[in-house]
């Protein structure tokens, strides 16, 4: 008889990451497949299920349950995406049920940042901190919320939209159409806008990682850029801490690799607050666990989200 | 044999309100005693316990448990206030255990806004909405959070500090010492500051209720004042909705009587948001239940906060 393992899938605009964990939560295998958005969600589900079967065969195991994290506004009840700028062709498609049929196991679906938050709570922090906020830094800025050891996905599955908190009302234009959202300062396009203002021509051709490298090399404009990114994130984190009084705020995603360039101003903002107890209690860190979104989805399938 | 009833106490800077509820949650009696801060917490506990005994005798009942809501940063574990600008003499005093000894029943202690939030969830909305945010409007702006039918008081009991979310970084000075907090625009002193700017000499001698009356009489400056208050609250509520995706945001406290003067701009802000699902789902209302803080504390004693 083959052992039972748990699948996590983290579907982004370019790639979908897969992770397999044992019933004790140990990572057994990782993989990825291209999302290929123009070919549509039906073809994607087949591609992902093929890869999942290949993984299970390699592990001499059978899938027990799967967790599906997916970028966009997720209707967890109906198992579909209401809207997703990065996965347009997936909107309205019953992706959870399609994956359930393809794999023959139950599938739990959540927004990708919620699954990453579960990964932060369960893997990164070892379930020792009941109240954990996760902030995802990439093209956009998202988030997920674990409170009292339970994922809080909200009344319509939309909770955790950290990136659309206003940090500068009337400020820079966000991809959502509003002004002054955190994402307009700390999403990759916001960082590049700030870099163009602070670095002038030296910002040309750089992506957010390039701006981080320039800052580490000592470029004054790049350092000012990250200070402004960190100040915006500091305002956001202070708001989060005042509202939710968490044990930890964990940054994940591509841009979180900039580390101390934005963590220092965020920690400084917290230290400067008059309400000492919640602001000193909250640890602020960057997740070290690789591919925490797919792992979080697998652990969510195993653990049921509290 | 006398029946068992549940006591709620809501301790503010001037008065403490008391409420008695039956085991089915029905309000049986209400009362109040002066807080008399300069005489200290020990004398207050005796005064409140005397009044509670008088209430119980009148009801031919015995207290079963009590809920204690108190303005300030509450250490629920140790049953004391860490700090409270409005109850200075209470800081550090073991008020929960003193009340427990005086009444001879278990006492659950929470920040007053948390107890009001439990009242909103349990009494105002009849436990039909699992995710409820309460915003208290008075001298300061506070809040409480019920998620998944459970009170979220945070890792150190400090959650729900809605009033210190930044709605205008670098903006008006808040009583906490920071700039741009929601309270600096929607706490009574913030409203009066805006009224002085918008109404000039006509603001003299008015309190926040007076500014509301002037607006209802058609005073253009008073109307502009409330629009600015409503815009600040709108930014705050939008942030809350994006983060927590609640079923309802309920305003309570003295200033919430201004009703549509601030509710209209708040609802307008939500309607203008690009993320339709969470923003349309959240109802925004003013609590109609009288003395919801004391009632919430009694229901919390009865129901255990989920």
Task: Using a beta-carbon cutoff below 8 angstroms, give the protein chain pair with the largest interface and the number of residues from each chain.
Answer: A-B, 47 and 47 residues
Largest sheet of chain A: 5 strands, mixed
**Can you write the helix and strand succession of chain A as a string?**
EEEHEEEHEHEEEHHHHEHHEH
Alpha-beta classification of chain A = alpha/beta
Could you characterize the architecture of this molecule?
The structure is a homodimer. Chain A starts with a strand and ends with a helix. In chain A, helix 1 (about 40-60) runs parallel beside helix 2 (about 95-105) and helix 6 (about 210-215) packs across helix 7 (about 220-245). Chain A has ten helices and twelve strands. Chain A is an alpha/beta fold and about 300 residues long. The model of chain A has no long low-confidence stretch (mean pLDDT about 95). A five-stranded mixed beta sheet of chain A has the order 3-2-1-4-7. The interface between A and B is large, with 47 and 47 residues.
List strands and helices in order, with pairings.
The structure is a homodimer of 306-residue chains.
Chain A: E1 3-11, E2 15-21, E3 27-34, H1 40-58, E4 61-70, E5 73-75, E6 80-83, H2 95-103, E7 107-111, H3 112-124, E8 132-137, E9 141-147, E10 150-151, H4 183-186, H5 188-199, H6 208-216, H7 220-244, E11 248-252, H8 260-271, H9 276-281, E12 283-286, H10 292-303
Parallel strand pairs in A: 1-4, 4-7, 8-11, 11-12
Antiparallel strand pairs in A: 1-2, 2-3, 5-6, 8-9, 9-10
């Amino acid at each position: 008889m083959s052992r039972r393992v748990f699948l996590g899938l983290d579907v982004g605009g370019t790639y979908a990451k897969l992770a397999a964990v044992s019933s004790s939560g140990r990572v057994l295998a990782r993989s990825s497949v291209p999302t290929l958005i123009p070919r549509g969600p039906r073809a994607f589900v087949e591609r992902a299920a093929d890869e999942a079967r290949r993984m299970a065969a390699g592990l001499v195991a059978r899938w027990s349950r799967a967790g599906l994290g997916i970028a966009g506004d997720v209707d967890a009840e109906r198992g579909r995406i209401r809207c997703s700028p990065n996965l347009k062709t997936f909107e309205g498609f019953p992706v959870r049920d399609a994956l359930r049929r393809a794999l023959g196991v139950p599938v739990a679906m959540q927004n990708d940042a919620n699954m990453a938050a579960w990964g932060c709570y369960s893997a990164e922090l070892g379930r020792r901190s009941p109240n954990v906020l996760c902030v995802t830094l990439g093209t956009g800025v998202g988030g997920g919320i674990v409170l009292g050891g339970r994922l809080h996905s909200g009344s319509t599955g939309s909770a955790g939209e950290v990136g659309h908190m206003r940090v500068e009302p009337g400020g820079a234009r966000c991809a959502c159409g509003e002004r002054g959202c955190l994402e307009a300062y700390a999403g990759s396009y916001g960082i590049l806008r700030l870099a163009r203002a602070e670095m002038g021509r030296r910002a040309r051709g750089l992506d957010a990682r390039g701006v981080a490298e320039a800052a580490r090399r000592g470029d004054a404009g790049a350092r000012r850029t990250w200070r402004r990114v960190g100040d915006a994130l500091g305002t956001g984190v202070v708001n989060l801490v005042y509202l939710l009084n968490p044990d930890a705020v964990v940054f994940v995603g591509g841009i979180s690799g900039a580390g101390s360039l934005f963590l220092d101003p965020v920690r400084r903002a917290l230290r400067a607050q008059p309400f000492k107890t919640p602001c000193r209690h909250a640890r602020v860190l960057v997740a070290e666990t690789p591919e925490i979104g797919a792992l979080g989805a697998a652990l969510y399938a195993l653990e049921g989200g509290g």
